[in-house]
Design goal:
The complex is a heterodimer of chains A (about 190) and B (about 50). Chain A is mainly alpha-helical. Chain A has helices spanning about 5-35, 40-50, 55-65, 70-100, 115-135, 150-175, and strands at about 70, 145. Chain A has six helices and two strands, in the order αααβααβα. Chain B has one domain (about 1-50). Chain B is elongated and about 40 Å long. Classes of the chains: A mainly alpha (about 190), B mainly alpha (about 50).
């Protein structure tokens, strides 16, 4: 892979993590600004997004440490992304199908005309498509992780970490100490 | 919360071991996948029970 293409792909990797973390933040906006409570499937979709980002964030951390990414690690991380996105796709597809009957208002308020679980489905499909395209260009050599990305990489990893922790806290408030969440939550169990 | 905490712990271990110990990383990643799938099927069976 040409050096400029490697830089572009590594930059795209950062952008992808930022976009998916941004989508998680969008879920927070709907939860806190619009006062809606995420259902169990919504939370599972968030968890699947986090799972899909385990590989890419691992690549960024390895790049920060080593300055390059071995082909095996590169391939493994995209494989992780594909598996995480596939699980998210199954969950969000089921969520869409639950509300597909005519007359069903769906769960929650639509955003730009689509419900959040439909957006989640589109995110997972896009992640799978992006993975396919990136793997088309995979070569036998290591991917150079430029020093120019260091500051951006740290910022992206910190942003992702903060949003994941915030998700954990939000779920803690919603479920309290019970193992499972009710199908249509109406409040924060920890505060009741 | 407990399920989320277990999932995050598994996912974090998979992430942190990814570069140094690939086999361990993949095992923990597989366990994270299993945790999500188990929760998903648990909720799905609840829905099925209600609809039946």
């Amino acid at each position: 892979m040409a050096l400029w293409l490697q830089h572009a792909v590594v930059f795209g990797l950062h952008a992808m993590v930022v976009v998916v973390t941004g989508v998680l933040c969008g879920g927070f906006y709907v939860q806190f600004a619009q006062g809606e409570f995420p259902c169990p499937l919504c939370i599972l979709e968030r968890m699947a997004m986090i799972l899909a980002m385990v590989g890419p964030v691992g690549v960024i951390l390895a790049g920060l440490r080593q300055g390059e990414i071995e082909p095996a690690l590169w391939a493994r991380s995209w494989g992780m992304l594909i598996l995480g996105a596939l699980i998210g796709l199954v969950i969000s597809a089921r969520h869409v199908l639950l509300h597909i009957a005519p007359g069903d208002p769906g769960y929650g308020t639509p955003l730009f005309g689509l419900h959040l679980y439909t957006w989640a489905l589109l995110v997972f499909v896009t992640l799978l498509a992006v993975s396919g395209v990136i793997l088309l260009f995979a070569g036998p050599g290591a991917i150079v992780f430029s020093h120019r990305f260091r500051r951006l990489s740290r910022a992206v990893v910190v942003f992702f970490g903060i949003v994941v922790l915030a998700n954990a806290v939000a779920v803690f408030f919603e479920t309290g100490f019970s193992l499972f969440l009710s199908d249509t939550p109406t409040g924060y169990r920890l505060l009741e | 919360m407990i399920a989320m905490a277990i999932f995050l712990l598994l996912a974090w271990t998979a992430l942190s071991q990814n570069a140094r110990q690939p086999v361990r990383s993949l095992v923990f990643f597989g366990m994270s996948c299993a945790a999500i799938l188990w929760l998903f099927f648990h909720h799905s069976s609840l829905h099925l029970a209600i609809s039946l």
